[in-house]
Amino acid sequence: MKINNDQASSAVGLLIGALIVIHSFVYEIGSMSAPGVGFMPLLAGMGIILFTLIGLGKASVQSLKGIWWDPLWKGMKWERIVIALFALFLYALLLKILGFILTTILFIGFLLRVLEHQRWRVAITWAVLSALSFYVVFEVWLKSQLPAGVLGI
User: Which residues form the domain of 97?
Assistant: First the structure.
């Protein structure tokens, strides 16, 4: 019987999920109303097993249809990945200098305009709305300290 790459990786996923579930019983599991230390690892292991079984089912159906090994990087648009990584690198460099709001507006606007080919109005609108939404969530509600930058914003 031939095994495709998704079936092989699903077998590894099942093994990892099973090991997590088994090891979670070393700790106190508790109950839904009073979870113990082992409760979250148990749920995580069960989640891994569930999603791995779904993947295994899909891979098995593909193998029945004659689909075996797909090239891993087939159809990758490398230039978009390089541009996004470069923009992320610049974001990290400029964050303390320009501040969170301005850097985030420039970053999201750039990604929307260059990678998604949105119109200027759409890119700027979504960049400003996103940056302000993030600011409200992290600075106002969660009281985290975001970089203000040289402009103080």
Answer: 78-141
